[in-house]
Amino acid sequence: DVMIPLKHYPSVRDTTPPSLVLPNNVVQECPGDTRTNITGVPIATDSCGSVAITYSDIVSNSCGLTRTVWRIWTATDQCGNSTNGTQIITVRDTTPPRIVCPTIAVQCPDDVPPPYTNLSAFLTAGGTATDGCSPTLTLSLVSDSGVVGSCPGSVTRLYRLTDACGNSSTGTQTIIVDDTIAPVLVCPTNVTLQCGLPFDPANIGSPTATDNCSTNI
After folding, report:
1. Is residue 161 within 8 Å of residue 129, measured between CB atoms?
2. What is the DSSP letter of 109?
């Protein structure tokens, strides 16, 4: 028998996971943009070959459209070794809503509308209320001066608009009260008097007058 010597070949294997350098944690103002081209991507390297990078998100929603995203990045080499890392993306709301109160002019004090009790009434009257993060806004009356002065007078009301995250802003509404309509005078009909009769209302009649605002004319 002929003895054939065995050759020993060295074994080469990869048990080292790739290195992973994560992008920085990010804080954005609502509504935010958490796409990777905005928040960054990691850098992965491996001494044995190419690396595939994937990620998955865990999202915790908060007030309005605010949220926290835990983005778990995974770098996997060709031999199945992997490295994980977590990037935190926070979308917060520190911006107050925007409010513009309607300006109203009326003729009489009795024409002054009551304060708005909800946001729907405020918007119907011509006010505007907007927010980039909160779909739900709350309107409340802070103060009401009542009618101050006359001819013209004015009413000053202060409203507060609050978003779902507690940010708020105030708006001032001024209602002008100014009677610009003259009273209506109705003269008595023409009459012919007998000579010597006095010119008093019993003989010639009395005018009547009405006004849109005043009862004392």
Report:
1. yes
2. G
CA pair distance 108, 211, nearest whole angstrom: 10
Residue 102 Cα to chain centre, angstroms? 17
What is the SS3 string spanning 79-97? CCCEEEEEEEEEEECCCCC
Consecutive H or E run containing 70 = strand 67-77
From CA 21, how far away is CA 75, in angstroms rounded? 10
CA torsion 19-24-25-28 (nearest 10°) is -150
pLDDT digits (tens, 9 = 90+) for 25-63: 999 999 999 999 999 999 999 888 899 999 999 999 999
Express each pLDDT in 205-214 by its tens digit. 889 888 888 8
For residue 17, give the nearest of 54, 48, 41, 55 by alpha carbon.
48
Nearest to 73 by CA among 65, 90, 89, 85: 85
Q: Is 60 helix (H, G, I), strand (E, B) or coil?
A: strand
Q: How many CB atoms lie within 10 A of CB 66?
A: 22
Alpha helices in 44-173 (DSSP H): 119-124
This prediction has a pTM of 0.78
State the chain's mean pLDDT as an integer. Answer: 92
| Close Cβ partners of 66 (under 8 Å, ≥ 6 residues apart) | 30, 91, 92, 93, 133, 165
- CA nearest to 179, candidates 210, 159, 150: 150
Burial per residue of 151-181, b for 16 or more beta-carbon CB atoms within 10 angstroms, e otherwise:
eebbbebebbbbbbbebebebebebebbbee
